[in-house]
Amino acid sequence: MGAGWTILWYWLLAANVFAFTLCGLDKQKAKKRQWRIPERTLLLTAAFGGAYGFYAGMLCFRHKTRHLRFQVLVPLFGILWTAGIIAAAYFC
Q1: CA geometry: angle at 22 spanning 48 and 70, to 5°?
Q2: Residue pair 64/23 in contact by the 8 Å Cβ criterion
Q3: How far is CA 56 from CA 20, 28, 49, 59, in A?
Q4: Model pTM?
């Protein structure tokens, strides 16, 4: 594996930890009726590599689990990232 793969794995690790943390923070803010993190920000975090972390946060914190947009898009982003990585590994 080259340096590009190493960078990708570190990116995905950081993105998923960040997404999980962001999900927990937003849930905490919701409970305290404080300013919330915009849904667009949460979804973009999932789209840019943090889908699995955000999905774990959804389940762990029971947050955004009723929103159809999150039920569909977060797993879809995870599937797309997985497919992209498999395709890149196959063709590179």
Answers
A1: 65
A2: yes
A3: 7, 16, 13, 5
A4: 0.93
Are the C-beta atoms of 80 and 73 separated by less than 8 Å? Answer: no
What is each CA distance from 47 to 33, 53, 63, in whole angstroms? 26, 11, 17
User: How high is the mean pLDDT of the chain?
Assistant: 96
Of residues 35, 37, 33, 4, the one with CA closest to residue 19: 37
Instruction: Output the pLDDT for position 1.
Output: 64
Structure tokens at 15: 């993105």
Q: Which residues of 13-29 are buried (b: 16+ CB within 10 A; e: fewer)?
A: eebbebbbebbeebbee
